[in-house]
Design brief:
Elements (H helix, E strand, L loop, with lengths): L2 H14 L4 H20 L10 H13 L4 H20 L25 H18 L2 H16 L3 H5 L6 E2 L4 E5 L5 E5 L2 H17 L18 H15 L8 H14 L4 H8 L4 H10 L1 H11 L8
Antiparallel strand pairs: 1-2, 2-3
Keywords: DNA recombination, DNA-binding
InterPro entries: CB, DNA_brk_join_enz, Integrase-like_cat_sf, Integrase_catalytic, Integrase_recombinase_N, SAM-like_dom, Tyrosine_recombinase_XerCD
Organism: Fictibacillus iocasae
């Protein structure tokens, strides 16, 4: 089967299976590069793909500056594509399974208190000078991400009808579009209530969505990406990337450092597998040791 038709068939299959638009775009970007590589090297049929082609492509990506995590993400998409080809009977085996994942750094950077105050201070200052929706929305996005650990797509799709101020919860559609309940604090509920009043005054009609663009339409993946790119330039942090996922990591980090059990962290983060949670806990093991050395009850006992 011609590779270009196999690729399109795979994308159509994922679309038919109601894969999110974000994941479809990820397939087009991360898998599309491999398809282009094959065409450039005269590999025109899907049956012609060999494991050494996958290795050569990933090595090229690495030479172009791709991190180990990015290379592994591309390998994951190639494997998914070839798995589909096996299921459809187009190839006999998934040759990408012979290619090993790269060892990636497990360190994940999180925001410090100072950095969080700096970002919030920027939007507070902007609000005082301009009283703009842009400033208030940026402030509320940070507070919401930091107070819930929800994902970028979840915050984009968050509606006012999903916010339960009385029971202090919000409903989100997480991975696999599964409806999940996220707890919020009274502090965040008050912030959201005040923001709701601001939006009602700002726009003639309150949008169904909590976070909107200047024209009162739902935010898109691109608009939220541009917002955080702008914030990254303003803050100029050298040691951490300003992104929604960094706030999610920070939320998880603070839970771990507070002494919360791994089981509770799993529920708060909504990880499907506790092994994912344990990787985070293990990642911050040195900090936990420092906290233990500092606060261990034996330190204050005369024994």
């Amino acid at each position: 089967m011609l590779l270009k038709f196999a690729y399109q068939d795979f994308i159509d299959d994922r679309t038919f299976k109601n894969t999110t638009a974000v994941n479809i775009q990820n397939y087009k970007v991360l898998l599309g590069g491999f398809i282009d590589f094959c065409h450039e090297n005269s590999i025109l049929n899907v049956e012609e793909i060999q494991s050494n082609h996958v290795k050569r492509y990933l090595s090229q990506c690495q030479s172009n500056g791709n991190s180990a995590n990015t290379v592994n993400s591309k390998l994951q998409r190639i494997r998914a594509f070839l798995n589909y080809m096996v299921e459809e009977g187009m190839v006999k085996e998934n040759v990408a399974l012979k290619v090993k994942r790269q060892k990636a750094d497990v360190k994940i950077n999180v925001f410090s208190d100072e950095q969080i105050h700096q970002m919030l201070g920027y939007y507070r200052s902007l609000r005082r000078r301009e009283d703009s929706y842009f400033a208030y929305r940026g402030y509320m996005l940070i507070v919401t991400f930091l107070g819930t650990g929800i994902r970028r797509t979840e915050v984009i799709n968050l509606k006012w009808s999903d916010v339960d101020m009385d029971n202090l919860t919000i409903s989100v559609y997480g991975k696999r579009r599964k409806k999940e309940i996220v707890f919020i604090t009274e502090k965040l509920a008050k912030e959201l209530s005040t923001y709701n009043l601001f939006c009602k005054r700002r726009f003639r009609t309150l949008s169904d969505y909590v976070f909107v663009n200047r024209d009162n339409t739902q935010m898109t993946q691109n608009s939220i990406m541009l917002l955080f790119q702008n914030l990254q330039r303003k803050m100029n942090f050298s040691d951490v990337r300003v992104s929604p996922h960094t706030f999610r990591h920070t939320f998880c980090h603070r839970l771990a450092m507070s002494g919360m059990s791994a089981f509770a962290i799993q529920k708060m983060m909504r990880h499907e597998n506790i092994a994912v949670t344990m990787r985070y806990v293990a990642m911050w093991g040195n900090e936990l040791k420092e906290q233990n050395d500092k606060y261990n009850p034996l330190n204050k006992l005369d024994i």
